[in-house]
Amino acid sequence: MTAAIVTKIFLVFLFSKGIVESWLDYKNKKYILKNRSAVPARFADKISLVEHQKAADYSVTKINVGNFFHLFNFALLIFWTVGGGLNIIDLWVKSFGRGEYTSTLLFIVAFGTLSFLLGLPESLYSTFVVEEKFGFNKTTAKTFIIDGLKGLLLGVVIGLPIIFGIIWIMNSLAGQWWLYAWAFLTIIQMILLWAYPTLIAPLFNKFSELEEGDVKEKVLGLLERTGFTSKGLFVMNASIRSSHGNAYFTGFGKNKRIVFFDTLIKTLDADEVEAVLAHELGHFKKKHVLKGLVKAIVFSFIGFYILGKLDGWPPFYQGHGLASASNITTLILFSMVAGVYTFFMTPFSSYISRKYEFEADEFAGQNSQAAKLITALVKLYKDNASTLTPDPVYSAFYHSHPPANIRVQFLEKLSKEK
Fold first, then answer.
1. 207-209 sheet: strands from edge to edge
2. Which one of the listed residues 272, 280, 357, 383 is annotated catalytic?
3. CB burial class (10 A; 0-12, 13-18, 19+) of residue 199?
4. Whole-prediction pTM value?
5. Across-strand partners of 88?
6. pLDDT tens digits along 294-345
7. Which of the listed residues 44, 119, 225, 401 has the most CB atoms within 10 Å of its CB?
């Protein structure tokens, strides 16, 4: 296979991905607008028409903005690959005649700086225009800048050693380097997953122990009934950035933490918090978290295996816009284009995720009150301006959670059965 054929295959996949994305966005926007004038019957007594229309307008605005940045990122990917962008940086770095590790550092600084600057408009517009327009943004310019600097520092402290470690493995372990690189990265990811709750997350948010009261009493009762142990119950000051509410688990093993957004605690009553937590516990008890981790490790293995087979095959690199490949361009190019070739696996991943959500809801219905989970979800749909009427095809392709109507119908059935 020649480089020219590789280029044609890449462009076919890339344009097919773009066409499908645009078509799905069009269908979703059209469906939301079509149903904007009336609240779905199941929610008519819980969500007002004004709130429903706000959610529709919020979704449509995000689609419109997303379409623009999808086009921008589409053009940017073409520039970096077949347009020669990565090759230009690579040639510039090689012109200094430095050793591999110095050249790698120069490449990362140049590419990282350009990528950050080119990605900044989307982040700024989403935060300070879209989220601000609909009343969700609480992020100040100071917080935005500090978050960016902290993210940059983490990238230097954590990211650079990982990259240099992989490059050392590529240089030292010949044909089987991909296997050792995969093992190295997997171990590092497990360490970071363990360390995230106590070392990384506190760099961006403040975490305080859940205060005594009805909520804590309900939560502790649920944990005791289900035999779940954690390193603590924490409230995160999410309100400094957004008014959206959520709850999550983090860490693994004995280092697990249960975290509630402060916005969630303010919105839901004690029984509703218990029901939301029961749902999240369901993911652990049904081993969804473990399955997700195993899936990520397996796909990482497959990715490194493919990369190992492509390493040193000129048509792959030349077909994607590189005259020649160094170790760092190998890694960056592969990470850029892999998503283009795997895009059409998205609906399968979404289907599995929705299946897990139903199983977690069933667990919540068995260990708390399904009716309370319904009222909690309705409040979250309302407060987060989540559309109640996504296009079915769009939802099936992308959404990790079932549409509101289907999910509530499932929970109503559980409530009646119980």
1. 207-209, 233-236, 257-261, 247-250
2. 280
3. exposed
4. 0.88
5. none
6. 999 999 999 999 999 988 889 999 999 999 888 899 999 999 999 999 999 9
7. 401
Question: Measured between alpha carbons, how far is 79 from 256 in angstroms, rounded to an integer?
Answer: 42
391 in catalytic set: no
Q: How many CA atoms lie within 13 A of 100 on its CB side?
A: 13
* Crossing angle (nearest 10°) for helices 160-172 and 100-125: 140
Q: Sign of the C-alpha dihedral, residues 41, 412, 136, 115?
A: negative
What digits encode the pLDDT tens for the residues 138-153?
889 998 999 889 888 8
Pairing of the two strands 247-250 and 207-209: unpaired
Residue 43 token pair: 């929610």
Measured distance CA(203)–CA(201) in Å, rounded: 5
pLDDT band, very low/low/confident/very high, at 254 (cuts 50, 70, 90): low
Tell whether the torsion through CA atoms of 249, 250, 255 and 258 is positive or negative.
negative
Provide CB contacts within 8 A for 115, sequence distance 6+: none
Phi, psi of 259 (to 5 degrees): -125, 130
* 327 neighbors 104 (Cβ within 8 angstroms): yes
Beta bridge partners of 234: 209, 259
Give me 141's structure tokens.
Answer: 């310019």
Q: What pLDDT, on the 0 to 100 scale, is given for residue 253?
A: 64
Question: Residue 280 catalytic?
Answer: yes
Q: Distance from CA of residue 10 to its chain's centroid? A: 25
How far is C-alpha 274 from the chain's CA centre?
25
**Quick one: how far is CA 321 from the chain centroid?**
28
Q: Which two tokens stand for residue 76?
A: 């940017």
Q: Catalytic pick from 274, 361, 383, 391?
A: 361
Assigned token pair, 14: 């890339």
Structure tokens given for 12: 């076919």
pLDDT bin (cut points 50, 70, 90) of residue 82 is very high
314 to 1, 140, 319: CA distances (angstroms): 10, 48, 8
Distance of CA 228 to the CA centre of its chain: 26
* Rounded-to-integer distance, Cα 166 and Cα 87, Å: 21
Distances (CA, A) of 65 to 124, 169, 242: 12, 42, 19
Q: Looking at residue 409, what is its pLDDT?
A: 92
Of 8-17, 111-120, 408-417, the one with minimum mean pLDDT is 408-417
Task: List b or e across 273-303, with b for residues whose CB sees 16 or more CB atoms inside 10 angstroms.
Answer: bbbbbbbbbbbbbeebbeeebeeeeeeeeeb
Give tens-digit pLDDT for 59-73.
999 999 999 999 999
